[in-house]
């Protein structure tokens, strides 16, 4: 997308033109695609089509006033070469989701479209969690009330930290460079690189694997339980902070337990990581830790005391050390 996403993963290096092959793809139709905006350089539409790209998602608008200068031109050109076409709006945090939705719909009114519409919401530093949730729900609600189907594009980190479980049941399209999202391909489309190289375009290209939901707007009923989502998030942060190389599947199996045992010596007072932040969120949920009483991501004194209180109530050794006997509480409740 136009503005790059801060995605907290250790990405694999992509050589120019590399084509990342998805693993464990489910039995569903997958469409090769690209997403573009006015500074994306399509040099030859026929070459692009011949390269195997079948879907192009074009930026339409941003905020309340910005319009992509190539929107009308590409909306006319792309169907002539047999591409399936869709449009996205880039959200800005101005507190006016309905006005932005109105602006978006005004720009795409009357244009040929084959896919559902897309809201692009990203950049963690620009949003609080509640702002992101409120904006997304109001934006998609307004668009749906006008008879359109819509999905959400965002980064994997933003989705799990801000939106998962807090927005309407719409198709999702996740950016994750070098790491296949667990949700692909049953419940999500996947932007797998922003540095692709392909015939018919000049420079780095956003490249995607789309599933059928981009046309139907239908969402798979397959979904994680709340506990599986939490475990998935923990696995994700273990990979992020400690390069654990776990399969993020929401299941606390042998490899996940080994990774937790491996980081036991590190999580002492003063240690800082996203895993500690995950731990703090669980302690808040259990009622052992109060919001605002601790330093986020830091295993500080209030967090240590909360862990010892938890251990006491569950009959564990009250030492504040995160061994597997203590982790089992967090993983099973």
TrEMBL record:
SMART domains: Glyco_25. Gene3D superfamilies: Glycosidases (3.20.20.80), PGBD-like superfamily/PGBD (1.10.101.10). The keyword Signal applies. InterPro entries: GH (IPR017853), Glyco_hydro_25 (IPR002053), Glyco_hydro_fam25_subgr (IPR018077), Peptidoglycan-bd-like (IPR002477), PGBD-like_sf (IPR036365), PGBDSf (IPR036366). Pfam families: Glyco_hydro_25 (PF01183), PG_binding_1 (PF01471). Keywords: Glycosidase, Hydrolase, Signal. Residues 276-328 form the Peptidoglycan binding-like domain. Residues 1-27 form the signal peptide. Belongs to the glycosyl hydrolase 25 family. This is GH25 family lysozyme. It comes from Clostridium moutaii. The lineage of its organism: Bacteria, Bacillati, Bacillota, Clostridia, Eubacteriales.
């Amino acid at each position: 997308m136009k503005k790059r996403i801060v995605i907290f993963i250790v990405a694999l290096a992509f050589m120019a033109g590399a084509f990342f092959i998805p693993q464990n793809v489910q039995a569903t139709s997958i469409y090769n695609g690209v997403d573009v905006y006015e500074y994306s350089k399509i040099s030859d539409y026929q070459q692009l089509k011949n390269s195997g790209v079948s879907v192009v998602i074009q930026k339409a608008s941003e905020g309340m006033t910005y319009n992509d200068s190539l929107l009308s031109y590409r909306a006319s050109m792309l169907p002539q070469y047999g591409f399936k076409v869709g449009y996205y709006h880039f959200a800005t945090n101005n507190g006016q989701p309905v006005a932005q939705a109105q602006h978006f719909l005004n720009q795409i009114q009357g244009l040929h479209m084959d896919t559902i519409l897309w809201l692009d919401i990203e950049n963690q530093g620009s949003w609080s969690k509640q702002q992101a949730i409120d904006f997304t729900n109001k934006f998609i609600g307004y668009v749906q009330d006008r008879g359109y189907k819509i999905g959400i594009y965002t980064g994997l980190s933003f989705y799990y930290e801000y939106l998962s479980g807090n927005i309407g049941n719409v198709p999702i399209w996740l950016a994750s460079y070098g790491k296949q999202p667990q949700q692909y391909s049953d419940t999500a489309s996947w932007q797998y690189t922003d540095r692709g190289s392909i015939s018919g375009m000049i420079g780095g290209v956003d490249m995607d694997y789309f599933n059928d939901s981009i046309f139907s707007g239908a969402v798979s009923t397959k979904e994680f339980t709340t506990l599986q989502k939490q475990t998935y998030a923990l696995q994700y942060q273990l990979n992020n902070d400690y390069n654990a190389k776990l399969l993020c599947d929401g299941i606390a199996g042998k490899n996940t337990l080994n990774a937790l045992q491996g980081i036991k010596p590190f999580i002492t007072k003063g240690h800082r990581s996203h895993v500690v932040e995950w731990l703090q969120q669980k302690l808040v949920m259990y009622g052992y830790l109060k919001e605002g009483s601790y330093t986020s991501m830091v295993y500080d004194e209030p967090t240590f005391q909360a862990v010892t209180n938890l251990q006491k109530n569950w009959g564990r050794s009250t030492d504040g050390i995160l061994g597997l006997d203590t982790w089992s509480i967090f993983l099973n409740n």
